[in-house]
Amino acid sequence: MTAAPEPSHERTTNGVGPHPEPWPDDPRLDPELLVAGDTRNVVDRFRYWSMEAIVADLDTRRHAFDVAIENWQHDLNIGSIVRSANAFLAGTVHIIGRRRWNKRGAMVTDRYQHVRYHTDVAAFLASMHDEGRPVIAIDNTPGASHIETAAIPERCVFLFGQEGPGLTDEAVAGADGHLEIAQFGSTRSINASAAAAIVMHSWVVQHADLG
């Protein structure tokens, strides 16, 4: 049986209390949640479901894009990027570099999201090449095309750099494409997690079935 997520990390004011008896005969439901109530930050259709059941359901309809993040300086944005990846139903989140990252920003969504680790950029690029998945670098640096007018590949992985330094030269050079988000104000860049959410939503606009 899967333990309920830590309430301090995932409690929401939109939860539900204990399920009235008799309980439904549904193997997807978690008896502990039926007894105690479900305060997790999940959509209503997943109330009282076990974590394994939710992941299994998501796995039947994940989108064809992945997300990758370079993590050389313990980037605090990774948790928020993972949360957005869950919201937009990314296939996998790839973390390049350090395996440690601040999971609080993920709001426990990392438990529902596939996460893979790569020791360095070369290992990541080789793995994506072997899988036939184009790598799209996202950075507002010379040579980038605007994502607003680009044809985004349906099956791809979006590669993001860290807050501040952005992507490494090795990552940009090894990518199959290079896109940036159009900006119009005085700031040089936007927050890395905000950029990731915009890019994922851009994929959704072009490829997702909204019916």
From TrEMBL:
It holds the Pfam family SpoU_methylase. GO terms for molecular function: methyltransferase activity. Keywords: Methyltransferase, Transferase. The keyword Methyltransferase applies. Residues 1-30 are annotated as: Disordered. Residues 67-201 form the tRNA/rRNA methyltransferase SpoU type domain. It comes from the Bacteria. GO terms for biological process: methylation. This is rRNA methyltransferase. It comes from Curtobacterium pusillum.
